[in-house]
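// run 5 | inverse folding | seed 20
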């Protein structure tokens, strides 16, 4: 609890005293799953079957951080692409959308993924020159034991094998001033993490990763059957909910399509 309160104080200070941080949201694809029972939900728990797939650019005076890289780059411009249990669609790649902003992958200083599943690591190979911020536990699962775990597709991020890394063991203050904080939230994968931002105008904002996939997942505390640990997932949900209460942060479920339809996408931004 002390940790939560301290973070809350830091964030309220951040709003008035810390650096200007700018968040840009990109449409990095859409997913459709006709059957959602794999997400730990009965099919009548919600009628939502589509998921938004975002990428986020965080611009701080000390550098640019890309949070999540969307669907596989090869799916871009291909129309509906079949998956085992659904389909995906990706209009324009994150690399092309960054180019619209006058940015190339070389302009990205730091790369962090909520976790290494295909809909978050899909563009990772393009950002091998960035420093990767990754939990040690996620590194072990995604790089050392990927062949034993079917939810990790190493071909999507093989180029990161040799990239510079900050191996994390828990929460991490990315720029050292409290404005951009990675919060460890394991369970979906061994090193799953969420991102807590202190934006001056918009206030504190948390990006969920895949802590929840649907709004109903949050209401029902639904744990997908493919999560690495149900116990850790529930503990992470409890921890994040207490952080949200302490910081009064806005909470974006990254895959929430209804939310996505209300968001300003690139080139607009949140600051
Ligand atoms: Zn996902």
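// decoded
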């Amino acid at each position: 609890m002390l940790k939560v309160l301290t973070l809350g104080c830091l964030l309220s200070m951040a709003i008035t005293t810390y650096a200007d941080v700018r968040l840009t949201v990109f449409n990095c694809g859409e997913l459709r799953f006709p059957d959602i029972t794999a997400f730990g939900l009965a099919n009548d728990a919600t009628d939502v079957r589509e998921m938004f797939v975002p990428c986020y650019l965080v611009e701080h005076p000390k550098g640019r951080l890309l949070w999540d890289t969307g669907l596989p780059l090869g799916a871009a411009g291909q129309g509906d692409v079949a998956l085992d249990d659904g389909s995906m669609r990706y209009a324009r790649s994150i690399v092309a959308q960054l180019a619209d902003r006058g940015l190339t992958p070389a302009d990205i200083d730091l790369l962090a993924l909520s976790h290494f599943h295909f809909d978050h690591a899909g563009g990772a190979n393009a950002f091998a020159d960035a420093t990767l911020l990754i939990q040690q536990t996620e590194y072990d699962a995604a790089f050392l034991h990927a062949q034993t775990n079917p939810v990790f597709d190493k071909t999507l991020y093989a180029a990161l094998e040799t990239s510079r890394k900050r191996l994390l063991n828990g929460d991490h203050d990315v720029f050292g001033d409290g404005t951009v904080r990675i919060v460890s939230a394991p369970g979906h994968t061994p090193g799953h993490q969420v991102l807590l931002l202190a934006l001056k105008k918009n206030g504190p904002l948390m990006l969920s990763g895949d802590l929840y996939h649907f709004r109903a997942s949050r209401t029902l505390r639904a744990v997908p059957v493919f999560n690495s640990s149900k116990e850790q997932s529930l503990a992470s949900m409890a921890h994040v909910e207490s952080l949200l209460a302490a910081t009064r942060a806005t909470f974006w479920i990254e895959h929430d399509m209804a939310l996505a339809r209300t968001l300003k996408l690139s080139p607009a931004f949140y600051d």
